[in-house]
Amino acid sequence: MRQTDFLIIGSGIAGLTYAIKVAKQFPDKKISIITKAASDETNTKYAQGGIAVVNDFEKDNFEKHIEDTLIAGDDLCNASIVEFVIKEGAERIKELIDLGAQFDKENDGKYQNGKEGGHSASRILHYKDATGKEMERALLNEINQQKNIKLIDHCFVVDLITQHHLGHLVTKSTPDITCFGVYVLNLQSNKIEKITSNITLLATGGCGQVYRTTTNPFVATGDGVAMVYRAKGRIENMEFIQFHPTALYQPGKQGQAFLITEALRGEGGILRNKKEEAFMEKYDERKDLASRDIVARAIDNEMKKAGTEFVWLDCRHINIEKFKSHFPTIYEKCVKIGIDVSKQMIPVAPAAHYSCGGIKTDEWGRSSIKNLYACGECASTGLHGANRLASNSLLEAMVFAHRCFKHAEEIFSAITNLNLIPDWKATGTSDPREMILITQSLKELQLVMSDYVGIVRNDVRLQRALRRIDLLWEETELLYKTTTISPQLLELRNMITVGYLIVKGAGFRKESRGLHFNTDYPFKSEHKQNIVL
Fold it and tell me: 480-510: per-residue pLDDT in tens?
């Protein structure tokens, strides 16, 4: 058994920001960060566009950013959460810059402010088209300076430890469910260990891998959400899955798709259909800079009308030197696959991108389980509502990491009787005979979610999806109980749970709002409702 004072699951911007603050405030306490892959393999790393924050008060203000966020969230945001995230964000960015993070500047030394869909002003701070990677670099560098932080990579969390593991009956109505730590599969020793902690933070990221094509890395399998649901914690609004309108289309490619940042449309990129017509003006007066839910549905509609698998993003009119300077990663990728962006258009299609729901938290990042916090994409804080405004995610992660730290600082106290927690019992299990039982189930899940629970849904599709996911769950649980645990089996189990939560939430929502569009209920209900499971 390992024991730590603060346990963080996940090494993206949310987890690292929290860890740094805790380490500095409690130099005599032990902080452990667990990640199932390399420490920098997170959604943060792949965030291209930037971070939305008001920093030029001559041309912008907090009220505009708040209003843009509320509009994008389609009347389901928590207004008080939106207000403090936008207002506190400026200080969090300053802290990150003080740690050495670089953002692009004009010749006069002022920060360059990009513009993205849904924003009424240019307020996106960025570093080329690799903003997340730069932020991750600065944070990891600071992590390495803190002597009381232990970064444990290639360690897969199996489950949260609660009273359930002490022999008590735990249900959704149990009032004092408490987290004592986690069971983890050490991928180097291939043994399951227990790590106990006074305070645990889940910063496990998104769940894009539930779908056949996603902008998320392969680690984005919804682990945190699935673990909290199994521990009888509250999950909220999982039906709101944001599809990024413009992922690079490559015939036959599945899994992680290359992201074509929204900032390209902010620089003047134009979406065109098969006939090379600019079509966004038919769907929204903001044209190519409408919010992501509108743009993704418009592209989906244009593809279905034409019978194509992609549309075009036309950047031929953008100065090529400016393109190379501002979007070097995209330029290099296009060159690599034979596209000259000065003469050819880029084929793009929507891909699963961001989960606006997740572990239900309050304004301090507390989950419904005691001593368990959540922030970043795995959390449902109330900021995004039914649709995330572009580049608000990194901002949210930093603000809530700080708030989780401030609250944990106030309530920190030692948990007793941790020695009573039993070791993991793996008796009666055997090695899986065929890995195809896992890989094929994963393919089936991704196919079901992509075909039935995508950008546009209806009741028949959702019912079919639920029946198929129920069968996958039964088969996978049997496998889980009778074979030794592997990372592939754990991820499959988590993704099936997340798929179920998305479908279940979508079935309960009898309206079309934000990212959830059901052709059987094409209207928006007068009653604003959060779906809590």
Answer: 988 888 899 999 999 999 999 999 999 999 9
Residues in contact with 203: Cβ distance below 8 Å, sequence separation at least 6, in sequence order:
8, 9, 10, 11, 12, 14, 15, 18, 224, 374, 375, 376, 378, 397, 401
- Locate tokens 């999950």: which residue? 235
The residue ranking higher by pLDDT, 278 or 153, is 278
| Active-site residue, 457 included | no
CA gap 330, 46 in Å, rounded: 12
Supply the range of the domain harboring residue 360: 2-239+356-420
- 125 forms bridges with which residues in the sheet? 51
Same domain flag for 101 and 195:
yes
Asked if residue 220 and residue 326 are part of one domain, the reply reads no
Q: Are strands 235-236 and 213-214 parallel, antiparallel or unpaired?
A: unpaired
Q: Is the pLDDT of residue 432 over 80?
A: no
Say yes or no: 341 and 398 in one domain.
Answer: no
- Active-site residue identified among 292, 366, 388, 457: 292
- Number of domain units in the chain: 3
For residues 129 and 20, state if they share a domain: yes
What confidence score (pLDDT) does residue 415 get?
A: 53
Residues 15-48 as b or e (16 or more Cβ within 10 Å = b): bbbbbbbbbeebeeebbbbbbbbebbbbbbbbbb
